[in-house]
Amino acid sequence: MVYYVPMDSQVQEIKEKLPINEVIGQYVQLRRAGRNFVGKCPFHKERTPSFHVSPERNSYMCFGCGEKGDIFTFVQKIDGVDFVTALKQLAERAGVVLKQHSYIDEAERTESKHKEEKLLEVCEEATKFFESQLASRKEIVEYLHARGVKDETVKEWRLGYAPASWEDLSKYLLGKGYTKDDVVEAGLAVKSERKPGEVYDRFRGRIMFPLFDASGKVIAFSGRFFEKVLGSKEEGDPAKYVNSPETLLFKKSKVLYGFDRARAAIRKADCILLVEGQFDLILAHQSGLPFTVALSGTALTPEHLSLLGRLSKRLVLALDGDSAGIRAGLKSAAMALQAGFDVKIPTFESGKDPADLARENPELLKAAVRTSRTAIEFFLEALRPGTRDDRAYKLLIEQQLLPLVKVMQSPIDQAHFVRIVAQRIGAPEDAVRIALQKSRVHSVQEAVAEEGGEAAPEPVSLLLPLERAAGMLVFKFEDKDKMPSDMRVRLVELLGQERLAAIETKLGQERERLLFEFESFGTDEAASAEALLQTIERSILEDEMKSLREELYRVGGQESAVLGKRLLDLKRRQQELRK
Ligand SMILES: [Zn+2]
């Protein structure tokens, strides 16, 4: 195996060639603020920008959630990739050719990293196996053609076939030198209960859709039923789809099928099309809708939304038209609206899904997406059939639809939809507004709270103004030789050696944040430093005056005259500082 071992010099070279504000600027709208840039943090939800980027120090930091780092950590985090992938990506952009080494010390790699790589290899081998199986089964390829899937699409999405047998894949992988445990842990085989120590293939007689991670590596599979194992005693109808279980590689709530390919298109189109099934997904891409992603056998989660929300806030939800689909859609829409997405829903001819439309005519699918209506308008219509009478319909709207309006972040948007709902159901706007106030958003909010997904975290810490000011100076002029000597003298004079050292220790964790704060004052370092020294002095004066006043209450006579004089002096100095 070949590892990339970036040498520090290469990492440095990439950093120098790629200004951090340009790398981050592709994801976050930044505006200049003094020597730095600020924008809205892509890692937590916020209305006012608290995400700071320093081109000089090649670093970024969010004052809201505390995320910080350099271009590599940024790309890792925002694209959900590992360091090596981020490194390769940025090296390519910077035009830096990475030097390869193949002799890295295995012991240095952590156990789980090692395991992850092993499982990725197993998944990759399995994908190749499934691909070759499909190539040899003409009737399955023909079935795919009949569903509208072109050969290029089969190749591009690496579709395959898991033979209708109990152990073909396992045998193949064991033959490649992997252990039974490896195959089980990759989610491809199941341990036999009847024959301890034996394993059997999880996917049998199924068309295989590999699921990819953000960097395009296969991490799991979804298998659509095609045929039963010959002479199998399995009873009943097999599940239409079988998915990989959760593994070290595969976390359902965080993976979206197609995300790795759709990412760039989503950003470009500023739009996300979310579909339900594997065929929907590959056919949407084939039809010229490259900004499509699909859920992989799970409901929409806050993690999915936070992954998508960094790329675009315009979400088109393509739902199954049946009642279960509508119910799931209500939940997904509420969650997305609450997370600040603009949610639209296309209407498909009854009983059809995106894959059907794409097969008939890709233009039909595109047109349906283009003419999507807002979630509220869609559900106003979709909830009507099946209701007993007009009153039942209105109550259903109150229970099911108003929670969606309630979670909207913009009051103007809310007002807009209150009017639309009132018009459609023929009720006074005031009545709708009162119902809205009463309506509860239970399930949605609870779900979001549980996941801890979007809620803004607490500020990193609350510091006294004096500590912050002192911290900024100490860290900014860390190199004591470079610190202007009079500043050092004044700092010690004001705070004393001991207190200064204590502040430095206490604020060690906040170093990065304080540096950014200092820089946010402007480009004149001397003036900023002077202002901070005055802040410190003011704060010390205030403390001293406060205790003097308290003392004046307690003492009398001669003593109070001395204290009074001292207080007057302090007051005078305070006024000087105010100027
Ligand atoms: Zn943040």
Strand content: 5-15%
Distance between the termini: 68 Å
Provide mean pLDDT, rounded.
85
Number of domains: 4
- Spatial sequence of strands, sheet with the most strands: 14-16-15-17-18-19
CATH class of the largest domain equals Alpha Beta
The CATH architecture of the largest domain would be: 3-Layer(aba) Sandwich
Bound molecules: zinc ion
- CATH topology assignment of the largest domain: Dna Topoisomerase Vi A Subunit, Chain: A, domain 2
Shape type: globular
Count of individual beta strands: 19
Number of helices: 26
> Based on helices, strands and strand pairing, what is the structural class?
alpha+beta
Q: Describe the biggest sheet?
A: 6 strands, mixed
Q: Helix content range of the residues, please? A: 40-55%
Give me a quick take on this structure:
The protein is of the alpha+beta class and 579 residues long. It is built from 26 helices and 19 strands.
Account of the protein in words:
- The longest helix is centred in the C-terminal third of the chain and has 30 residues, at 525-554.
- The chain starts with a strand and ends with a helix.
- The protein is globular.
- α3 (71-79) crosses α4, α21 (465-476) packs across α24 and α21 packs antiparallel against α25.
- The chain has 579 residues and is of the alpha+beta class.
- Helices cover 53% and strands 12% of the residues.
- The chain has a six-stranded mixed beta sheet, with helices on both faces. A five-stranded antiparallel beta sheet has the order 2-3-4-5-6, sandwiched between helices. Strands 8-11-12-13 form a four-stranded antiparallel beta sheet, covered by helices on one side.
- It folds into four domains: 3-101, DNA Primase, Chain A (Alpha-Beta Complex); 111-250, DNA primase, catalytic core, N-terminal domain (DNA primase DNAg catalytic core, N-terminal domain, Alpha-Beta Complex); 254-451, Dna Topoisomerase Vi A Subunit, Chain: A, domain 2 (3-Layer(aba) Sandwich), CATH 3.40.1360.10; 465-578, no CATH class.
- β2 and β3 (36-39) form a beta hairpin.
- Mean pLDDT is 85; it is low at 101-109 and 443-461.
- The chain contains 26 helices and 19 strands.
- Residues 41, 43-44, 51, 62, 64-65, 67 line the site of zinc ion.
